[in-house]
Amino acid sequence: MFGKMKTLLYVLALGITMASCNSSMDVATYNNELITVVNDNEKQVTSMNDAMNAKDYTKAEQVRTTWAETLDKQIKKVEDLGSYKGDDVLQKGVLNGLQAYKKIVSADYKELISIRKAGIADEETAAKEEKALENINTAFGKAAEEVNNASDAFEKKYAK
């Protein structure tokens, strides 16, 4: 389940990387800035997976809090980077993806950590846990799809 999220982040990074192929140096530099932002989230996913797999929910909450703060900085960085020569399709796609991650981290992971930390093993709690996991996986998938679509559109426009 958490491995799927990591895979989605790799797909996201791959999509942005492909956007920079066969492009001018300026396009590549722009894309590399965005790739760096996206790749930073892979570290956070790994840290979250490690904490959750170890059932260290205090650590998971620390990772979640740090990740939320990191996402705020990443969103600001992408906003400050601006569009590429007035074309904001890739920037908007990455921003929308990061904002989706922010919601996942702020709401869905918070809920999941709370459920698991409580340690209650009944059907209602199991259903809530499954719903939180489903929300996380679905949201990561949608975020990756949005960034990949923006990346594809950007690549088509600037590939030489």
**In DSSP terms, counting alpha (H) and pi (I) runs of 4 or more, how many helices?**
5
Element pattern in H and E:
HHHHH
Low-confidence stretches: 10-25
Characterize the overall form: elongated
Give the N-terminus to C-terminus distance in angstroms: 38 Å
Secondary-structure class = mainly alpha
Q: What is the alpha-carbon Rg in Å? A: 17 Å
Q: Biggest sheet, in brief? A: none
- The total strand number stands at 0
**Strand content bin:** under 5%
On the 0 to 100 scale, the average pLDDT is 85
Helix content: over 70%
Signal peptide: 1-19
Protein name: Lipoprotein
Keywords: Signal
Organism: Chitinophaga rhizophila
How would you explain this protein's 3D organization?
This protein has 160 residues and is mostly helical. The chain contains five helices and no strands. It is elongated, with a radius of gyration of 17 Å. The protein starts with a helix and ends with a helix.
Give a quick summary of the entry.
Keywords: Signal. With 160 residues, the protein is an all-alpha fold.
Architecture blueprint of SSEs:
Layout: H1 2-20, H2 25-53, H3 57-81, H4 89-118, H5 123-158
Helix pairs in contact: 1-2, 1-5, 2-3, 3-4, 4-5
For this entry, give a set of tags.
elongated; single chain; signal; 160 residues; mainly alpha; Lipoprotein
